[in-house]
Design a protein that fits this description.
By secondary structure, this protein is an all-alpha fold. It is 62% helix and 0% strand. The chain contains 4 helices and no strands. The chain has helices at residues 3-12, 17-23, 28-42, 49-64. Helix 1 (3-12) packs across helix 4 (49-64) and helix 2 packs across helix 3 (28-42). The termini are close together.
């Protein structure tokens, strides 16, 4: 379960669950479970606009410095 990718797609879809689930080819309830898992792990609320902005900025910086090219620990083999 790649939670970083899920979060990235969710943020790029402006927090729209239906659009995100379609883009990820995932059932809406599965996506909601992942989003709850992300909130739990990071101790955040994704319904807060400033939190979403900070996460998007962090993911952009992460991408900009090339770390996304490496295999993430939560990616399936």
């Amino acid at each position: 379960m790649n939670l970083c990718h899920t979060l990235d797609v969710y943020l790029k879809n402006n927090g729209n669950v239906n659009s995100t689930s379609k883009e990820l080819f995932m059932h809406r309830s599965s996506l909601l479970y992942r989003l709850e898992r992300i909130e739990s792990l990071l101790n955040i609320r994704l319904n807060d606009s400033e939190t979403r902005f900070n996460l998007m900025m962090a993911l952009k910086l992460y991408e900009m410095y090339g770390y996304r090219k490496k295999r993430l620990p939560d990616e399936d083999a």
